Amino acid sequence: MATAFDYRSQAFNSIPSVGLMESLANYGTTPINVLTGGTALGNTNLVAPSVVANPLGYAPSPSAMLTAGPSTLGSEAVPSTNWWGYTDQKTGAYSPGIVQQGLGIAQGIGNLYLGMKQYGLQKDIFENNKQQYAQNYAAQRTLTNARLEDRQRARVAANPDAYESVGSYMARNRIV
């Protein structure tokens, strides 16, 4: 069974090392008197674990971030980012390197470009389909109207008094 750690009873430089997930789970639960050695600020104000690990807020320089090997923030050794990524030996968490992140960004930009090209092609295909549909509809309309008119002419020719004229029939039944 895990035991609770009382920050008030420990000196600042003996803060326990916590893993990434435990650090995220405990975000905001570290009393601020850890930073001040239990002074008058009290323990009701809470800070993030990253502030406890790096109380002065110094960020590593870009050149330090590109070097391989550990750097120190506070009292705990933290592996720095290298070009190809690394696996933290303590937690087993993998952190991608700058090269992998750059390739991921390049892949995202490439996918965006190809997606826009596909969008343009789909717009062209849609316009072509609309044009083909309009041409097909016009051809079918002309053919159907010619057949209707031909059938009515044949009916009128067979019995002129029984059927209406071709003009009035087509005015009523023409496909527009």
Describe this structure in words.
It is a single chain. With 176 residues, the protein is mainly alpha-helical. The protein has 2 domains: 7-95, no CATH class; 100-173. The protein has helices spanning 20-25, 33-36, 49-53, 62-66, 98-158, 166-173; strands at 30-31, 46-47, 70-73, 76-79, 86-87, 94-95. Strands 1-2 form a two-stranded antiparallel ribbon. Strands 3-4 form a two-stranded antiparallel sheet. A two-stranded antiparallel sheet has the order 5-6. Strand 5 and strand 6 form a beta hairpin. The longest helix has 61 residues, at 98-158. It is rod-shaped, with a radius of gyration of 39 Å. Residues 11-16, 30-36, 39-45 and 71-77 have low confidence and may be disordered.
- Total number of distinct structural domains: 2
Overall 3D form: rod-shaped
Helix/strand class: mainly alpha
Mind telling me the C-alpha Rg? 39 Å
Largest sheet: 2 strands, antiparallel
In short:
This protein is mainly alpha-helical.
Distinctive features:
176 residues, 9% strand, rod-shaped, single chain, two-stranded antiparallel ribbon, two-stranded antiparallel sheet, 2 domains, mainly alpha
What is the topology?
Elements: H1 20-25, E1 30-31, H2 33-36, E2 46-47, H3 49-53, H4 62-66, E3 70-73, E4 76-79, E5 86-87, E6 94-95, H5 98-158, H6 166-173
Antiparallel strand pairs: 1-2, 3-4, 5-6
Helix pairs in contact: 5-6
